[in-house]
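S2.1 Query sequence (Receptor ligand binding region domain-containing protein)
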Amino acid sequence: AQGLKICFFPLNYREYQVAEAMIFAIEEINNRRDILPKVSLGYKIYDACGSVSLAIKAAMALMSGAGEADSSTLPCSQQSSIHTIIGQSGSSPTIGIATLVGQFNIPVISHFATCACLSNRKEFPTFFRTIPSDYYQSRALAQLVKHFGWTWVGTIRSDNDYGNSGMATFIKAAEQEGICIEYSEVIYRTNPRENFLRTVKVIKMASSKTIVAFASFIDMDFLMKELLLQNVTGLQWVGTAIPEED
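Output structure tokens follow.
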């Protein structure tokens, strides 16, 4: 198809299932007369491949009513053909979309973007979500760590909006609970292996054996494989509901 982009990561089956579930729900609503009488819902689905730039480009294509290939040639004055954008799972792509379409008063509804920063109504006036903010999860993690008496911990986070915002809230809450942070490491899937090796070295040299992680599935997968190769064991991991895309 024209404008088709090839993703560099394997098919995300969870995201595919979510898309299929949405299609099923829309078709069920359209086939019934008691939910939205005389109204028919339509949809168009783009795969942003977990990319912020592709997510923004897809949002522009949806607003213009054109395909990805020719969305940049249409006039800005043309009325949007959509009423709502659903997505994304990742906080960073969702921030990009919400920042763009919020200027045109188009609602964005995410099912998995949890960054507390998205709760700022001044910056994201048209953003909504069906999942709680990480603000509450971060504070709950701090209370959980205190409950088990882990007062000396290390932290790992993804270098994106999800990881940075969530970990900042956790560290603040941890300090209030009397928990000390020995180290705070940042990881990201596109970093060279040397960066992961350095993080593994920090973990091995540290005296704390409890690690709180605010990282995506892909980033943690890279780190865990390196820890396995280096035969690093005896660690207690405390994690969040790990997103696959962010």
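The chain has two domains: 13-129, 134-239. The chain has seven helices and seven strands.
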